[in-house]
Design goal:
CATH superfamily of the largest domain: Vaccinia Virus protein VP39
Number of strands: 18
Largest sheet: 10 strands, mixed
CATH class of the largest domain: Alpha Beta
Number of helices: 13
Structural class: alpha/beta
CATH topology of the largest domain: Rossmann fold
Strand content: 15-25%
Shape: globular
Length: 423
């Protein structure tokens, strides 16, 4: 795809969602147009260790895309407000195997109240009337109404107002929808810029098939484009191989507003130092749990060839997590996954979790067996069957060398530990 060098169109002859490579987290499936927001958010090169927020992240396509662009560095917070959708998001993040993602289940308002202007980049893929899906989705056509467009525009404006509070001075906010309606696109941005003069439109690149924003579609509401709305981009199904989309990149001024400065002061002790408790206090508490850590160390010594830094370990209940290198204290926010779930402490032992296998790279495990993608052995493993393999102890089952899941070798049999919900 012209706007995403890592994206490829499929010919439709195979079901890629059922391929073992998909289960191993080697690729993600989504519409080509939906791949544009993450790429456009990073059209301005990122700095090392940036903090990024995907505000409405489920089901996880844009989150996994952002994680790939960040190459595992910095901190990526993937938030989803709806309880029914956050589980799907968490599973997709786990399958992707990124080590810098924290999954939260919060309202944007609570995130803004807690963090304030904390993130260098924020992605708002806003709920919309879905006009861009009309070509392939009959239900989108049947559900549409002028009242829906008006209601979506109000909702989108409210989300953007909250998202603005989360962006650091000098940071970026990418707003996107999958609709054509100017009321939900240029109209929402125009209203936002009137209320938040610290933000300005950043002109996005025009890839093959993209067209500029259409401020003239607002008619009398905006006779001339004084706010740079034409710097946004629109994707039309008749011009590209993808569905309809809109994206606008906004940059927050370096100084911020007086109100934002006051908010930052309230989040400090008055001298500018953060009042949020640093995550290292949680790390220090972990070091006292020597018995639990002993079981983890024994497992890691026997099963892994890579050293996972102990200062990034965190115990939550019986679970052990590996936190992002650049992290934050999340206080009482609802955190679904604070990092990579490494496994659980059982009675006098440590049992590895499925996400740990997907987090590992080839060569980072001592015991492994690898099968071709279309082999009978791999098909049996994905059905939950045990395999006749002469291995001992915890073993990573791989597809063509890529980690797929765990098995445990006992007396010439590899007992299956692939989670049933993933089969």
């Amino acid at each position: 795809m012209p706007w995403c060098s890592a994206a490829f169109l499929l010919d439709g002859e195979e079901k890629p969602g059922k391929h073992p490579y998909h289960l191993a987290g080697l690729y993600y499936l989504q519409d080509p147009s939906a791949m544009s927001p993450a790429e456009l958010l990073f059209s301005i090169p990122m700095r090392e260790g940036e903090r990024v927020l995907d505000l409405s992240a489920a089901p996880g396509g844009k989150t996994t895309h952002l994680a790939a662009l960040m190459r595992g560095r910095g901190l990526l917070v993937a938030n989803e407000i709806k309880n029914k959708r956050v589980g799907h998001l968490a599973q997709n993040v786990e399958r992707w195997g990124a080590g810098n993602v924290v999954v939260t289940n919060e309202s944007p308002e609570r995130l803004a109240d807690y963090f304030g202007a904390f993130f260098e980049r924020v992605l708002v893929d806003a709920p919309c009337s879905g006009e861009g899906m009309f070509r392939k989705d009959m239900s989108a056509r049947l559900d549409w109404s002028a009242e829906m467009v008006a209601g979506c525009a109000i909702r989108q404006g409210n989300i953007l107002r909250v998202a603005a509070k989360l962006v650091k001075p000098g940071g970026y906010l990418l707003y996107s929808t999958c609709t054509f309606a100017p009321e939900e696109n240029e109209g929402v941005i125009a209203q936002f810029l009137e209320e938040f003069p610290a933000f300005a439109v950043v002109e996005l690149p025009l890839f093959d098939g993209f067209v500029r924003g259409k401020p003239e579609w607002l008619g009398e509401k905006l006779k001339k484009d004084e706010r740079g709305l034409a710097g946004a981009v629109r994707l039309f199904p008749h011009r590209i191989q993808g569905e309809g989309h809109f994206a606008c990149l906004l940059r927050k001024a370096d100084g911020g507003t007086d109100l934002e400065a006051a908010q930052r002061m309230r989040a400090t002790d008055g001298s500018g130092a953060k009042t949020h408790k640093p995550i290292r206090k949680r790390r220090e508490a972990l070091k006292t749990e020597t018995s639990d850590l002993r079981f983890w160390r024994e497992f890691a010594r026997d099963a892994l060839t890579v050293d996972l830094a102990e200062e990034r370990l965190c115990v939550v209940g019986e679970r052990l997590y590996y936190l992002p290198e650049e992290n934050a204290d999340f206080g009482r926010l609802r955190v679904v996954h604070p990092g990579v779930w490494l496994g659980s402490f059982k009675k006098e032992r440590f049992e590895p979790a499925h996400p740990l296998a997907l987090f590992l790279l080839p060569g980072e495990m001592k015991n492994f067996v690898s099968f071709p993608a279309h082999s009978r052995e791999l098909a049996a493993y994905l059905r939950g069957e045990s395999l006749e393999v002469s291995v001992s102890g915890w073993t990573v089952v791989c597809v063509d060398g890529w980690p797929l899941g765990w098995g445990k070798g006992v007396h010439g049999t590899l007992k299956n530990h692939f989670p049933r919900g993933w089969m």
